[in-house]
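Sat 14:20. Reprocessing the chain from the morning session after the first attempt stalled halfway. Input below, unchanged.
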Amino acid sequence: MSKKVAIIGYAQSHHQSDLPKTREDLVFDVVKEALKKADILREDLGTVVTSSTDFLDGRTISNVFLSMAVGAFLKDESKVEEDGTNALFYAMMKLMAGAYEIALVEAHTIGWTFNPHQVAYYAMDPLVERQIGLLNDISAGALQARMYMDKFGVSREDLARVSVKNLTNAASNPFADRRLPEIGIPEVLNSKMYYDPLTELMISPVSDGCAVVILASEEKAKQVCEKPVWIQGAATFQDDYIRDRNLLGLDSLKKSAQAAYHMAGISDPFNELNLAEVSEKYAHEELMIYEALGLCREGKGKMLLEKGITSKCGEFPVNPSGGALGADPVCATGLIRVVEAVRQIRGEADGHQVPGVKRALAHGQFGPCAQKNTVIILGGEQ
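Finished this time. Tokens:
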């Protein structure tokens, strides 16, 4: 990247169900904490980018009512739909263009406003699939899981191992929603069945939550921050509509990873990165994400899991925070992965810190069967 952008501050809420706060109160508290960590004032902000959807906010042009809480009063302000990593990508481009020196990026979802799984019906074909009502984000995920399992010999126990790993990790993360330190494969398999083969504990929990990161240009970051975390690579792609794409491969994630690696000068991600924070909405997706990120060959994701390579103490930890299976405040989930990666690089991931993290990958997704994907490569001292 010719012009460098750094993350100089961050914050996230304690993610939970039925948060006893308004959306505005939640966002205000997290923004205030992020500004404090960055040691800057609201007046120092050049631009503010928020991320949510009007469907999940329950109102049209929902960012209008958020301007005060997010610190955007009399500032340049814009909203990016869906995942927070897209908002980060947009804010980064504003800084690289030289338009501003400091940007605040915020993402949130209050899950109890509207059930995101019901809203997901509106992403389906309006003439046939939406009318029949059988295809939604969960049933589509179950179809993808079954196709993947049948082709590559993956069992329900393999999916349960993903949940056990991530939910055990989440137990050490005070910000996670679902924390189950004693969880085992039988508990995952015997939890409520949604669509075969997916049980409740293989599906990310709809959570209320918010995340904020503050970006700065290279010159400004060096002036105001002792430990900036640099965005070394970033890319975003999306796949075709669910009927028209190959569900057995996360093609848009592969493209995003390859472009981000190229930008960051990475040729061997397994050996050049220290860990990954990924948005696995369903247990089977994490195995597919391993493969799309180039950490192993196609169909071999379960081998990384079985050998403990992606455990918190393994050679390449994935989701030491618990990932999306630990908390999924939909539009904020990808930005939380960025926050968690930054915490690891700065040595501030209390309770789930991985030793010696210098470089990490953060991943956000949105849409049925991980239709849209963004990859961010982050690194510490230059």
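The longest strand covers residues 229-238.
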